[in-house]
Amino acid sequence: MDLDVLNMFVIAGGTLAIPILAFVASFLLWPSALIRIYYWYWRRALGMQVRYANYDDYQFCYSYRGRPGYRPSILMLHGFSAHKDMWLSIVKFLPKNLHLVCVDMPGHEGTTRSALDDYSIMGQAKRIHQFVECIKLNKRPFHLVGTSMGGNVAGVYAAQYPEDICSLTLICPAGLPSSTDSKFVKQLRELQESERIDRIPLIPSTPEEMADMLKLCSYVRFKVPQQILQGLVDVRIPHNDFYRKLFLEIVDEKSRHSLQENMGKIKAPTQVIWGKQDQVLDVSGANLLASAIPDCHVSILENCGHSVVVERPRKTANLMLEFLALLHSTGNSKKQA
């Protein structure tokens, strides 16, 4: 082999070795940093830009793609202890000409966290309304999407601020009573009886607890490497005290059934998506909503748990688009009539 060619391979190999070694070192030593880089890269790849909005001395962090157009903007509210990037798996399957906004919920990620703030479901709905007014999202009625805790907030928002909303999607929403206790509710009862309520299954502090939480939330069994589990825990641990405070707030009597108390006031066409094998919030909540909201469309996903957005992102995105298309065609028919 020619010496120059050999030197080229040596140099190329050395050049490639540096990022490979850096990746391996990050994976082994700083898995949490790798997870942050992963989300940063995914946001860039999907064209989502991060921005901040201020309401007095309160700061909201959000990501967005596209601009308001003839179709309604879409605002997405994530669940307990998550963040705006959890929606990226759905964003991947949504058209790029849609105006999408994903906000960090009060106290989460880049949005202000204050010990004086009201983290009840009603308090969070009021904060989201402030955010909507900050970015002038309600110049025209928009489509609101929420999952789990975010679904509870979204439903209450639709009831309290009906003029802002043209339609609503609730994905496995919290805030409803159930005739059947889910596995999660049973675990909470056992913890209360043993006076170990600080060991909330949705607030892991070890890789093993993180693995248990993933099993609880997902019907699909993801094979997650130990280092990634450690990284996921490392990212959450600094926030666990806040998560405990928030959890106790949203399961308190003031917020526990907020969606049920407000669902009769929801006038916007509503879509409900629920995983049939949800072990956190029982799927019977879908029928409760369908019986209380006049224009309600229910989709139950087989072989799917609580983490619908992660387990069935393409299906969820398609259902949302079909729902919006149906409303658009219905609206046109009424105008022609």
Write up what this structure looks like:
The structure is a single chain. This protein has 337 residues and is an alpha/beta fold. It is 47% helix and 14% strand. The chain has 13 helices and 8 strands. It has an 8-stranded mixed beta sheet, sandwiched between helices. The N and C termini lie far apart (80 Å).
Please state how the strands of the largest beta sheet are arranged side by side: 1-2-4-3-5-6-7-8
The SSE string, one letter per element, is: HHEEEHEHEHEHHHHHEHEHH
Count all strands and give the number.
8
User: Given the helix and strand composition, which structural class is it?
Assistant: alpha/beta
Mean of pLDDT:
89
EC number: 3.1.1.23
GO cellular component, one term: mitochondrial membrane
Membrane topology: Single-pass type II membrane protein
InterPro entries: AB_hydrolase_1 (IPR000073), AB_hydrolase_fold (IPR029058), AB_hydrolase_sf (IPR050266)
